Known about the structure:
This protein is an alpha+beta fold and 212 residues long. It has one domain (2-210). 22% of the residues lie in helices and 43% in strands. Strand 1 and strand 2 form a beta hairpin. 16% of the residues are buried.
Amino acid sequence: MGESIARISSIKSASIDANILERSIATSLLVSTxxxxxxxxxxxxxxxxxxxxxxxxxxxxxxxxxxxxxxxILWLADEDQNGNVSIRTPEIAIKVSYIDEYMLLRVARFSxxxxxxxxxxxxxxxxxxxxxxxxxxxxxxxxxxxxxxxxRWTCHYVLLRKEKISFELRMMVNHTGSGDFSxxxxxxxxxxxxxxxxxxxLIEFSKAFTSK
Length: 212
């Protein structure tokens, strides 16, 4: 964790329209995505007997609360010998939200789309993680309203394959403070019909993952 904090502290933050809580969440998300991402790529977590998920907790209105409404998206990309990067369609999206003390993980796996701005979802699942302090009977996914994949916070992981022999993990945290989502899931019940991006998001995403 210390290594992740040291790396993040050297990154220059972009100017965003956000209050102090939103800025602290952005910093925490950067650290946690770096920490988990390197754990996934290196496998050191398993070798050193640690690892798993990270939950964010902040002091809100005088009490500690878990921070939900975050969507994580994993992408794959290839870099050729000339340094040109081609980013594929998303592989998976995970929405994190809370109902009381229960954490909901809604998972979507994507199949390749015909265009770069429209993707079909061929599978969706919901996993409920009970709190160790939970004394209730648990939640039934058939009796709750599933949360939308749309979130004000999105964390993007890009697994970059370089000349088919090595891998590099890059990440970006995106925040939509007000107005329409810069990345929007179009949903119909338990199915995702498409994934749409604003031009601003595509420009920021391209800069983040194609720059040296």
